[in-house]
């Protein structure tokens, strides 16, 4: 059994540590505690001295035995939506619509209960959690569980994959780039997240949590070093790197020490898959989860098995996984340092890549590194997390927060607005027009167009956002619905000595450090916490783009231009999160005094965010499917070869229907790779469309005809033997003028996989198989 560490959250009156209490109950209470503490000490001494062998005595509870285990539940559920025609969320590239599956998307839920309070942390393979998604999830939880899961004790965080589906937003700006609010995209996310919580809820059992922290170098670079350099020198000097390298791991075990799950945080953009990708993919963070889960659930297909590994986003605002850094793709030379553009081709030519040769290899390398580091920390995690749980949440009108800078001066946040450099995109992708980063002056051409189409920003907003040249004054644009959220969530949950700060957007490295420090200071200020580990959960609860420091904001690169509430956005958050942390710290202290009330619940809830009724949807319904004359859906257009070696790629193309006709595709698959088992004369599935080794492409042809191409990248670990690939789908046809949806499937010829073409065993097996095939066909 591990020894309880000194740094844990100080517990309550029933625990011996209540004597550490210093405030809130008044002098009488302090005296009582001191006296009680004294008596306890005396009794302890007496028992220690007087306990003789054979003499029955009440054992004095040690801290180890008195620490009640938590109830812990973990759950994972598929949240993949229809991978066709719907835009992918992240690069805001309208041409990047879904066309297949690289890896499936999952929601991973962790429920912790201290017998008094319960918290839920969800990390989902999604670009970001939107306000709409959160509200729909909370509504569904309320309908199912009443008041058990609420806005204050449930954190929803996105991994920031840029290859998940869009369409789950209620504000106009996001709806425009997403083709509106798309029900078929929202439903699997809501249902998948809720299902992951259901699974965690139903398997809660007593267990323990251990925390561990390490550093992972070489896996991330700062993509706006110029902005970072604008932070004060003495502040920068405190840090070795311009991105955070720490990986924080929480290890969950049952009471026998068997691992049941892991939750980790690392700050890096999930943009290893770039904007040329059209397949739904969980990118580097999702693949790290996949690797850890495959490791801990041996023999299971991806997405199956009890062990759940969450790799959650953090302060990744200016952090890129494209470690080769930005280069002009046309010349190979580095881009302009200040505004990330190229002499020929401008911003569009300046792109980051690496560390691999292509995006798949880059995803694999980054994911492997994160997974390896997390696994090492998981294996060595020895510091037990103990103490009660707390959560604090508020809705805040971020357009109007006043911040006291000093005794005489206040500043304020602004109505949301995006700067010119927002349209430049980043070196990770985006930005098709002639905008460049680092622009502090407007452009008369684009400003003119903007004024005509959406209107001129007010003077008040322009002044408030200075020096940001405003491209879209989204806070002043309300047609047909508001363009940006005004009411946002601030939230902290504490699990013993670990504080999870849920941030509603992409916070930069230095902003994240300041926020962690502020929260830590506040939590520890009253003596309620010691050696608390503060971690930032990024992309949580509602999306508000970026959060930079005031200094970074002045440079107006992409992140500054996308800090929508103005130059004092971070200061406002520091103030708000400090408030939450203080409430938690006070709750810890007050809770230890009669009548044991939780002060956190006295925090004002704040203004409720809106839930818009009339959302627009620009996606047309998927049309009927056609096929060539004298063929059927599922027929093979391009067949497999008879023999492959490990390391080869098998490719096969079928006549297909639109994947949108397959409805709810969660826990299903468009693809299986199957191996023949000659002992049982059956086919066994070795891969699905969730597998890293398979790629399912949907190719939309002309005249409503489409194909599905399945690729299998045969891994070196593949068993030699006979295989087949199957494809499953649905097609829509009109029958008597009514749409009818029909399932279909297609199967490849049997092919063999061998280590070498020249193996005698292979030829013998091949002959046996051919004989068997003949027997079964004739
Ligand atoms: Zn981002």
UniProtKB/TrEMBL annotation:
Gene3D superfamilies: Neutral/alkaline non-lysosomal ceramidase, C-terminal domain (2.60.40.2300). Residues 70-575 form the Neutral/alkaline non-lysosomal ceramidase N-terminal domain. The chain crosses the membrane at residues 25-47. It catalyses: an N-acylsphing-4-enine + H2O = sphing-4-enine + a fatty acid. The keyword Cytoplasm does not apply. GO terms for biological process: ceramide catabolic process; long-chain fatty acid biosynthetic process; sphingosine biosynthetic process. It is an enzyme of class 3 (hydrolase). Zn(2+) binds at residues 160, 269, 506, 546. Residues 599-753 form the Neutral/alkaline non-lysosomal ceramidase C-terminal domain. GO terms for cellular component: cytoplasm; extracellular region; plasma membrane. It comes from the Eukaryota. This is Neutral ceramidase. It comes from Takifugu flavidus.
